[in-house]
Amino acid sequence: MISDTFGEPYKSLAGVHSSVSAPEPIAIEELTKYYGDVRGVEDLTFAVESGEIFGFLGPNGAGKSTAIRLLLGLLKPTSGTAQVLGHTITERTRSVEGRIGYVPGDATVYENVTGAELLDYFATLSGDERREELLDRFPVPIDRAVKNYSRGNRQKLALVQAFMHDPDLLIMDEPTAGLDPLAQNALYELLLAERDRGVTVLFSTHVLSEVRKVCDRVGIIRDGRLVALENIGELLAKSGKIVRLDLAEDPPPDDLLFDGALSSDLDPDGYYRLVVTENFDGLVDVLDRYSVLDLEVEETSLEDVFMEFYGGT
Ligand SMILES: Nc1ncnc2c1ncn2[C@@H]1O[C@H](COP(=O)(O)OP(=O)(O)OP(=O)(O)O)[C@@H](O)[C@H]1O
């Protein structure tokens, strides 16, 4: 009973403004990556605008890391292309790399050096003018070998490394994984402050609460394809209302469906649960057929929206 309202892969007008103004920091066009027969991402098309925090949302295996690794030039696309800071991903130069900060999903390399040595190394590549300020924000045992770091400390070190050369664009793959709540909040504050300075951020996550806290827009990816691209308010508005009904009768949930109802289910507490996006007259017609003992109408939450895309999969 999952609707296909968002079922068609979303096609944005990526690049449409590029002839009249600066190109978007990230513009992706029909980007496809197969690992042999396994689909990583397929036909991704969207743009991340300058100065926004863009949440790239999807469950494990949806294709977020593949898309990010393609953007960073770490993987070669099967077809399609993307521009990052105006440069095609397959032809990027060092000068562009120096304007990007990257937080990988799994920060485990360079085990045998200390945190300080690791940062020194990256400083020679791109600079480190913000190192001290970031170490205050994300304190780590800088003189100890990285191999002895806890997961959270590795992640904090990765954050210091990603931000310390003051990049224009941050690309982050599940950056809060392993962070304690204090460090998570420090990151949210930093992201919002950076956004206000005009920095652009793309980050992948499956943590809905952080999407709500920091993201301006969100792209939802499912099975390698983009299925929604909206600002969060619009996404919620488009996703309709939850109508919960207690009926004297016991009709099968599908009997309550009408044009404008995305889904109809029976909750464990015996209430019918409809997701209604439009045609509230249709709802009134349905109600007219039964004895309604109770009725509640709620706004959809981001969790509800997510479940509409992923429920049952
Ligand atoms: N190196 C690889 N070789 C083969 N298949 C891969 C490889 N990397 C990813 N895949 C497959 O590509 C698909 C997308 O995986 P990807 O890691 O991009 O998803 P994800 O959304 O980042 O997931 P997660 O949240 O678990 O990191 C999955 O089916 C995955 O098994």
TrEMBL record:
Residues 26-248 form the ABC transporter domain. GO terms for molecular function: ATP binding; ATP hydrolysis activity. It comes from the Archaea. Keywords: ATP-binding, Nucleotide-binding, Transport. InterPro entries: AAA+_ATPase, ABC_transporter-like_ATP-bd, ABC_transporter_ATP-binding, P-loop_NTPase. Belongs to the ABC transporter superfamily. This is ABC transporter related protein.
